[in-house]
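Notes continue from the previous slide.

Worked example: a multi-chain complex. Inputs as given:
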Amino acid sequence: MKGFIAKLFMIFVLAASSGLLGARGGLDRHQAVALAIFIASISGTLFFWEFRLSFAFLGTCVLILTNTISLERLIAHASLDVILFLAGMMIVVGLLKYAGFFAWIVELILRMRRLTARRFVVVISFVSAALSATTGEVVSIIFMVAAVLEISEYFEIDPLPYILISVFATNIGSAASVLGNPVGILIASKSGLTSEDFLLRALPLSVLCLGVMLGVVVLWYRRALDVFDKKIKELGANEILIRLISVPIARELKLGLWLMGATMLLITLSHRLEVLLGLENNAVLMTVPLAMAAFVMIWKRERARDFVEKDVEWWSLLFFMMLFAQAGALQETGATDVFAKGLLAWARGSNLALMGVVLWISSIGSSVMDNVVIVVAFIPIIKSFHALGGAMEIFWWALLFGGCLGGNITLVGSTANIVAVGVLEKERGIRMNFFKWLGIGSVVGVATTAIAWGALWLARY
Amino acid sequence: MRKIFFKMATLVLGALTAGFAARNGGLNFHQALSVGIFSASIMGTLFFWEFRLSFAFLGSSLLLMTKAIDLDNFLRLTTLEVVLFLAGMMIVVELLKDSGFFAWIVARILRVRRLTGRKFTLLIIVLSAVLACVVDEVTSIIFMVAAILEICDYYEVDPVPFVIISIMATNVGSAATVLGNPIGILIATKAGLSFEDFILKALPLAAVCLAAVAGIMSWWFRRPIREMSRRLNELQADEILLRLITVPMDRQLRIGMGIFGLMIVGIALHHRLEILMGLERNTLLLIMPLITAGVIMMWKHHKARAYVEHGIEWWTLLFFMLLFAQAGTLKYTGATDIIAARFLDIARHNPHLLTGIVLWTSSIGSSLLDNVIVVVTAIPVISSFFEFGVGTQTLWWSLLLGGCLGGNITLIGSTANIVAIGILEKEKHVRIRFSQWIGVGLIVGLSTTAIAWALLTTLPYYRGP
């Protein structure tokens, strides 16, 4: 109870001081209030993770009560399109789960031919990255952890290195498409970047980062990999596993895969369809998951309600909605314009320096808090950069990669990490040490961010 | 499988007919399209109740794809503020449930001395109505039915008449405040009516209708009520039952009730506070449940997630959201303006006739459809009346009363009916037949609607702008 009150007090102090500082630094009353509330919400999520929604609700209400923003504008900033997109995708992924897609993937990994430690690492990295880019990082990591645990149990090796590698790959892969991470679709909806842009720019960069990550972990874990190789020689690879598991691909699964394929195809082509139909930007992108979810619910009608109630993460979505609205208030009051000006002055008007600032701040920032929080805070600031004119695109990519890559640095950097650590604790009773993670995590996180920085820098010229 | 295709074909055919009829009736392409899609969504809920959300999803996607409306306006028309209000209320109600509020209140009032059948009936009626208008009809009916079943079990009388009585009172009571029914807050938001307006205008109407219900019920069910009195006499003092249903007031419950009470006070005073704080109309009304939910989740933080995931009916809310947006599209394309103009031609600018039309169509309509659907359809039409300069507040009250009172007419007229019947079937394996309901339902539904009609058109109190 005492800790609780101390934390509450700390949030209050943090919020008040940031508000006051803001007011000193040239913000007007409304701007300062918006800033203080936003800070309070963020620190609320940091200190009270398990009921962060409460702070988001109360903060939003304070914004309205202080007349900082009207209810109507606040609702407009809630980005319901992003929320509905995520809900629709969660239903589609729910179907995949139900149809046994992930179990099938796990089995495929377990039946890998000519198994060696390094091959295993490469395969789980690419599968993790691909899964997370198509179905979202959280679902992907749950199944990857299951696969890794099974393999490591069979060969009696320490699963930790492989879990970490899978998590790293998941976070990196989530930057590759609009589907991988909530920040992806959020950036797409706010920046006007299309899913094709993601495919052309984000995907190659993310593959590059994946390669760098592989290099780093193979070096870092060389001893563990050698142990694994020795075990494989002793036990004669996974012959028994291969014989034990048979993978009949069910009709359900086939249909599910077609549905997922159609979804991804439509999402990829969404911009062309928009142009073809003469629709505004993102109109098709946002509606594809809804239409697909509708087909899912017609097909599996006896489970329709479960898809909506169990597979959609309403808790997180409600939190996102409030967070988006609060960041919108920051923008509406003009507070973010002030920050943008500050950043511009700091970078002395150089686009590239500015890009570096965005990338590194979002990377470091999302290592300590939810990357959605960071990205949401940055979006209006980047929008205010338009005063610069010229290419804005580079800032969006910097934000996306910062937000996703930074998640690797610490144990709590992204939802995938938290989920993986949770599963490990529950299934094997292994408690992950914060500093153990930080060692390899910071090397991977910083190296990949640096590579992204370099690549974005080069792409500029 | 065959049946599904048949239903689908009917749905598509019905939607196409509605669209083409609208096109021939002078609507342009987008207007006709929005009419067609909206009717497809409604038919989807009628034919495929258990996965109605699919049709709402598909219909919304179609509207966007065909450029009947753009994404921004569509999102605005989802009326997210009402959805969040309902979500907040559901969290609050979940807390009340959790802390034993309903069990306590039911037990408390049933501990009346010298109970007779008539007194019991009256108690059920008043209690159902009050609970329905401060919490919401679905929650209220769940607890009322549970209490009635327990008591009827004890005295060994048939629970069905009393369950029907409770349902009727619940539906009437839900019209009395903004909180009783989703259509209440919806109308309040769209019409700019405050909680006070509801207390001043809707509450008296609901009270009069409730009195009528009490009269009709004690006549219609005179035999079961007499039987109940006889049993009560036989078993004399209800000491054992009293002990059976005593719920002690603990600290949790007290705090929970305190929070709930504060919220009600806040909602009651919302209009005055808004003026005081210089806020826009109904802002405070809409965010009051969110504030309360925020406080509740902080207090019960280990249960916060469960409240949000299990307490909130996401399935229904998502459906509402898209339904609101689709109905809003009707307005956006201008389809409802044309429909409103047709109505005006029929009513020949006679406000009384217009009131009657709104009241009766919404009453009869919501006896067959979910009342939210009826109200959502009618709202843009009524807003168009305002644009033509013939709108009055009376029209909103007609819509509200019609939507709530019509629910009594049939077995499936409102969610409360469906829920109560479901419980009865599950717990007691008693099926209320359609014919068993329709007699009393028609009498109650039609007579209360007639009373509301008479009051709304004759009393000068309800005229005015």
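Summary box: The CA atoms of residues 196 and 268 of chain A lie 6 Å apart. Residues 434-460 of chain A form the longest helix (27 residues).
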